[in-house]
Every structure is written in structure tokens, then in C-alpha cells.
Amino acid sequence: MDKLITVYHGSEKIIEMPTFGEGKRNNDFGLGFYCTESADLAKEWAVSSLRNGFANCYSLDTEHLNILNLNGADYTILNWIAVLVEHRLFSIKTPVAGRAKRYLIDHFGVNVNAYDLIIGYRADDSYFDYAESFLNNGITVEQLARAMRIGKLGEQIVIKSQFAFSKLKYEGFDVAEKDRYYVLRKARDDEANRLYTEILEEDSDGLYMQDIMRGGIKNDDPRIPGNLSK
User: Could you please report the per-residue DSSP string of 67-94?
Assistant: First the structure.
């Protein structure tokens, strides 16, 4: 990563001064300011079917920041899922799912609050459903990894610490037109769902969440797929 990067935050409003400590605690990586290096993805995330949005642009000086890259070689897909289940609100449908959540956090969890900046993939609507299905023992970890790759989720950069917030400089905004960018977002989601259905129709003898718990499987097990960028 370059020391000075440009990031975009998709929103229904213009945000000239992002405020540390504001936002939703149940986002992918907890409380933080969620951005991307892709202006187009920020525009997709900014719109709804009913309204336009804004892609707010910032320069960010990453020098001296403590950065966690969940897409790096040191992490697997279960590290990413563990962070999701700790922060997002998942539907716990069975006692197995409750134990699965605890197991993932205990054995694959990462303390994201120890970092200034987080890099990882974004669990958009469909992808969140796939993660929830895995947690509830509905698909294997191999199927989950394939599903998470099919729709080009898009990498997000999350500003976590007050120090990192101080390194943001507002550079302006672009309007995101709903007639264009909502269509693009929906097409991405529909294609991901179509391909996911194909995955479900294939035979799979891989590891389910219950197998992972019963086997005491941890992060160094070669059967666990690597990070999503591989």
C-alpha cells in the first residue's frame, strides 16, 4: 500500500469531517469509517432504489498507521468470518449455530480494535447470507470460500482509531445516480445469487462448521481456505 492513498465513502449525504466514535457498531468490523479505494463501488454502496447518493473523497496518509490486512497471507477466510460474527447481527437458528459463533470467535477471532486501519472484504447482502448459512451448518467452508469469491465483493478500508481519523483530508464528492449505480449493485447481487445456487447443487464432502468444531480445527489446518484474494 502506498503511504498516501485516495479513499471514498458512499453515503446518502456529504461528509466533510468524519467523526471518530460515530456510526453503527454492528458493521462488518465494528465501529469505524468505512471506505473503499474504488469510486464506483462507493457509488454503488451510496444509493438505494429510491434516492441518489454521494461518493465522498478523501486523501489518507497511512504512514505510521498500524494496519490489519485480513486479505493477507497470514489470515484465512475463517478469520474474516470470525470478525463478522463478532460484530454483525447473525440469525442464530440452532444451538449448533450458537456454539459455532463462540468457536469462531475463540479460535479465529482478531482484535480489530487494536489497529488504526482495517483492510478486508465487504459482506454485502448476499454474501452476509452465505456466511450466515455456514454458521448454521448449511454449507461447507469450501463452498463458503467459493461463494465469497464469485461476486467481486470489493475491498473496503475501515478507519478505526482517532489517530487514523486525524490522517483523513476531505477532497470533495461525486454524485452517485441511483438509475445507474443501483442497477449495477443489483446486477452484481443477482449474478452472485445465481452462481451460489449452482454451487449448492454440486456435491460437497468438505468441512461443515460442526466438523470444524468436532475436530478442534484451528487456523493452521491446511483444509481451511486462505484469504479471499487468493
Answer: EEETTSTT-BHHHHHHHHHHHS-----S
d(CA 116, CA 103) in angstroms, rounded, equals 26
Q: Does residue 48 contact residue 186 with C-beta atoms inside 8 Å?
A: no
pLDDT of residue 104: 95
Q: Where are the alpha helices (DSSP H) in 54-177?
A: 77-87, 95-108, 125-135, 141-150, 162-165
**Residue 174 bridge partners (DSSP):** 55
Cell of 121: 472484504
Query: Residue 171 has what pLDDT?
Result: 98
Q: What is the pLDDT of residue 2?
A: 78
| Closest-CA residue to 152 (of 176, 122, 175) | 122
- 106/82 Cα distance (integer angstroms): 9
- Rounded CA-CA distance 26/109 in Å is 16
Give ∠ CA 71-88-76 in degrees, rounded to 5. Answer: 25
Which cell numbers hold the place of 111?
Answer: 482484535
Instruction: Look up the pTM and report it.
Output: 0.89
Q: Which parts of the chain register pLDDT below 70?
A: 150-153, 227-230
